[in-house]
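Course assignment 3, question 2. Fill in each field.
Student: A.L.
Task: Predict the tertiary structure for the chain below.
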Amino acid sequence: MTVDDLARRILVRHREAGHLRLELPAEICHAAAGAVMDAALRDVAGVYRVVFQVTERRLAVHFDARLCTAADVARALRAGLASLPAPAAGEVGHAPQAPAADPMVAARQALRETAARVRRALHDVRARLDALRQPTAPAGSLQARLQPMLATALTEKAVINFLNDLVAFYLVKVHWELISQRWLKNPVKHADAWLTVFYLMFLLVRYRKSIATPVVTVKPEEPATP
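Answer field:
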């Protein structure tokens, strides 16, 4: 039987985003063919789980819909049909003996499933943040009150200001013993340290003033001349 004949006899029983369940012909429902199809499908970027059921003649493929599509899975499966081995005597239609579990294969499959769950969780969090930032919330709701705060907190200037303050507090914490035990007791001797502190504070204040929104003063209109 040719590859085209086998491909035409593979039926799609269920299809949705990230899941594809197929019904296979009886000729390829054996252990050796299942191993070849499993290896061909796992080479596709995004496929993290393949379930081959011999007695039900079913093949279930779970994949990340953002990394690959059902068409990519179908092309990989068709490419694997060309290298399917012949079944052993009396093996077609019967459940094969379960091979010994390979710990490396199980670990890679667990990593794929974990990575897929993490990607889905990050996508959901990003979607919720985008929904909070959209100005479509009803007036007076909690979402409407949080939108301006999120829009302000996630800007580049706000992040830079926060990091600058964090660095300033960190420097004070690291040098607190020197400040309290040496620099304050003998400021003349440690004038270079105080000059450095004043210069850094000058730079921080000047940066804050440079990014501050300028206040526009509106002059009162002069009364019209009669």
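Instructor remarks: The first strand starts at residue 11 and ends at 16. Residues 103-133 form the longest helix (31 residues).
Grade: pending
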